[in-house]
Amino acid sequence: MSAENMKMRWFRSRFSAVVHLYRDGQDQYGEQMLEYQGRTELLKDDITNGRVSLRIRDIQPSDAGQYTCFFQSGVFYGGALLELQVAGLGSAPAISVEGHQDGGIRVVCRSSGWFPEPEVLWRDLQGQLLPSVSVNISQEANGLFHTEAAIVLTEESNRKVSCCVRNPRLNQERQSEISIAELFFPRVSPWMVALNVILALLPVLIPLASYCFWREHRAKETLRLELESEKAAHLAEKAEYEAVKGYVYTELGGDSQIK
């Protein structure tokens, strides 16, 4: 039957929480909740057959939940309850290279505008899942989710991968790929290994070298002192010999000899 002259009310959890109101053949906006103002429209193309549809524009995560459609004509009325599910398919993943880490290259995948909370997956060329080193999913002020996932690629494992962000409610996903050239991967040369070993041993080598130098210097100094002491003793002995020789020559006569 025609609903042109009926009263129709769409509301949320309470009868007074009006999403859209139709009465006296016109849309009424005076009782409408603030968050729905300017966003709703009652489609009346088939109202004479008792069918009306509610359109909500600029859908938001907060719009998810239960709605009641209520018809009233005089003393007769009827209603129906429905559950509105909201899903957002976010932006295509943006992949960026953010330097070296753990002998490989750190790659980060970012995407926003998802609802509900999405899943983030890394895959190789064969479609096999790869482990992330970190995953951060945060909810923004508008209720939508932002994702950030990182992976470390090594030359031995995978140089071409894809980042997939999936909406579990819609069973849909967005995907981006990245391929990293071989020359960007860090190289380990024997000289660098040797240099790193030397640098690691410097805290031990420097004190050891200082100690060895001190020992050598001390040994030389000891030897010098010993030589000077021997020289002094020899000079003293020679002086004593000359003194005795002179004494004997004077007292015993010039013809005496000391042996």
Secondary structure elements and pairings:
Blueprint (H helix, E strand, L loop, with lengths): L6 E5 L6 E6 L2 E3 L11 E4 L9 E4 L8 E9 L2 E9 L9 E8 L2 E11 L4 E5 L5 E2 L3 E6 L5 E9 L6 E8 L4 E8 L10 H63 L7
Antiparallel strand pairs: 1-2, 1-6, 2-3, 4-5, 6-7, 8-9, 9-13, 10-11, 10-14, 12-13, 14-15
Q: Could you walk me through the main structural features you see in this protein, from its secondary elements to its overall organization?
A:
- The mean pLDDT is 84.
- The protein contains one helix and 15 strands; from the N terminus they run E-E-E-E-E-E-E-E-E-E-E-E-E-E-E-H.
- The strands form four sheets. A five-stranded antiparallel beta sheet has the order 3-2-1-6-7, with no helix packed on it. Strands 8-9-13-12 form a four-stranded antiparallel beta sheet, with no helix packed on it. Strands 11-10-14-15 form a four-stranded antiparallel beta sheet, with no helix packed on it.
- The protein has three domains: 7-84, Immunoglobulins (Immunoglobulin-like), CATH 2.60.40.10; 94-184, Immunoglobulin-like (Sandwich), CATH 2.60.40.10; 188-259.
- With 259 residues, it is α+β, with helices and mostly antiparallel strands.
Defining key terms:
259 residues, alpha+beta, Immunoglobulin-like, 3 domains, five-stranded antiparallel β-sheet, four-stranded antiparallel β-sheet, 1 helix, 37% strand
Give the topology string: H per helix, E per strand.
EEEEEEEEEEEEEEEH
CATH topology of the largest domain: Immunoglobulin-like
List segments where confidence is low: pLDDT < 50 over at least 5 consecutive residues. none
Going across the biggest sheet, name each strand in turn: 3-2-1-6-7
Counting structural domains, the number is 3
Proportion of beta-strand residues = 35-45%
CATH level 1 name of the largest domain = Mainly Beta
